[in-house]
Specification:
- It is a single chain.
- The protein is of the alpha+beta class.
- It has one domain: Beta-grasp domain (Ubiquitin-like (UB roll), Roll).
- It is built from three helices and five strands.
- A five-stranded mixed beta sheet has the order 2-1-5-3-4, covered by helices on one side.
- A hairpin with a 2-residue loop joins strand 3 and strand 4.
- The longest helix has 18 residues.
- The radius of gyration is 18 Å and the shape is elongated.
Length: 96
């Protein structure tokens, strides 16, 4: 079956097509894609993975056409960014 494995950093995005046998798992596809050689910083023990934007386990069985995604760890909490932007917007309005 045909699967894609995707990973993106701030500077680079890679999508690798991989042929997998029936019964292959998310981990199988990642290991067979060669993406870990391109991005040695990927740590499957710490980073989340998913299929089509849905977080899943490494042992999840794949289906034809699935896109496996390896998610980068967040460097900033999105809630913090939103609060900061809101506070800056309020401060900007007060200055006007």
């Amino acid at each position: 079956m045909k699967i894609k494995v995707a990973y993106a950093t701030l500077r680079r995005q890679v999508v690798v097509p991989v042929e997998q046998p029936d019964g292959a798992t998310v981990k199988d596809a990642i290991l067979n894609s060669g993406i870990l050689k391109q991005f040695p910083e990927i740590d499957l023990e710490k980073q989340k993975v998913g299929v089509f934007n849905k977080v899943t386990a490494l042992d999840t069985k794949l289906a034809e056409g699935d896109r496996v995604e390896i998610y980068c760890p967040l460097t900033v909490d999105p809630k913090t960014v939103k609060k900061k932007a809101k506070a800056e917007g309020a401060a900007q309005e007060a200055d006007d």
